[in-house]
Design brief:
Blueprint (H helix, E strand, L loop, with lengths): L10 E11 L2 E10 L4 E5 L5 E10 L2 E5 L15 E5 L6 E5 L3 E9 L1 H8 L12 E4 L2 H15 L6 H20 L12 H13 L7 H8 L3 H12 L3 H17 L6 H7 L5 H12 L3 H12 L1
Antiparallel strand pairs: 1-2, 2-8, 3-7, 4-6, 4-8, 5-7, 6-9
Helix pairs in contact: 2-3, 3-7, 5-6
């Protein structure tokens, strides 16, 4: 954010939480104001910015590329997204709004092009776009916002996959209908090498960059091919494999829950418990009581 305008004093508080995945900074931003008058914030940055307004309370907000010139105003409370190129002046304008929740993605265009494995067009993919509505992007943004505010609970691969999926969905939205893509998956050798690598690094942060490199593909192509081969995206395969390995360890009486969490890359025992319960339907302790004695 480059600076603030004179009307920014109407804001009572701004809360922002940030994570970085695949070189993309993802910020979940809450803005609170008095619900009266106007608020104008200068948001010009050095990188491309894709802002997704997920919630508005009390009024409306919009993106403006010229100070004082109205933007594209829709219904109060409506969700929308806007893309602003690097260095282009941008002002966030709101009228009689009390609360706004935004997910903002800041990225370098050249780096994103490399990750997608295809060139991006300045006149289409990266052109200024003050307003767009897309339900799939909103759904992905909600998941990303929850992951940011949850401290990256599901891990690096999950965050990277969501970021990539959201940006790919944006490109699909601005490009319009495209020819059917190839449905081909990974070869048997590629799938074996990738799965072996993830199993051998269950306790370490694994990113799409290294998995795609093993397959000789771009990150976007690898994600599609992996899901075509396994039926699930890479982050979900990794998560379920971690939980499966945790179950194996829990069958042993000499391994504590804290040790299981440490070995498998969870932040702590409570992190393991939350993820395990979501996947299995029971806490690690309850699962161990039900199965550990029988196994021994």
């Amino acid at each position: 954010m480059a600076g603030k305008s004179p009307l920014a004093e109407n804001i009572r508080a701004i809360r922002a939480e940030r994570k970085v995945w695949s070189g993309v900074e993802v910020a979940a931003i809450d803005v609170y104001s008095g619900g009266e008058g106007r608020v104008v914030l200068e948001l010009t940055g050095q990188r491309f910015r894709l802002g997704v307004i997920l919630q508005q309370v009390g009024g409306y907000c919009e993106s403006r590329y010229a100070l004082g010139r109205p933007g594209v105003t829709r219904n109060p409370g409506a969700r929308f997204l806007a893309l602003t190129p690097a260095g282009m002046p941008l002002w966030g304008y709101s009228d009689r709004i009390s609360y706004c929740h935004e997910l903002a993605l800041s990225f370098d265009a050249a780096e994103l092009s490399t990750r997608l494995g295809e060139p991006l067009r300045d006149d289409l993919d990266l052109a200024p776009r003050p307003w767009l509505s897309n339900e799939r992007i909103f759904a992905l943004s909600e998941l990303l916002s929850a992951e940011v505010t949850g401290g990256g609970e599901f891990g690096q691969l999950y965050g990277e996959s969501l970021v990539l999926a959201l940006l790919v969905e944006y490109l699909r939205a601005v490009r319009g209908p495209a020819p059917a893509s190839r449905k081909g998956g990974l070869s048997a050798r590629q799938l074996r090498e990738v799965c072996t690598y993830m199993r051998e690094h269950l306790g370490a942060p694994v990113g799409l960059r290294e998995l795609a490199a093993l397959s000789g593909m771009s990150q976007a192509h690898f994600s599609r091919a992996f899901k075509a081969s396994t039926g699930v995206p890479p982050h979900r395969w990794q998560l379920h494999t971690r939980v499966e390995r945790a179950q194996q360890l829990l069958l042993r009486a000499d391994v504590s829950l804290a040790d299981v969490a440490l070995q498998l890359g969870f932040v702590d025992q409570s992190h393991l418990t939350r993820v395990f319960r979501r996947v299995v339907g029971a806490t690690p302790s309850a699962w161990r009581r039900a199965h550990g004695r029988r196994a021994r």
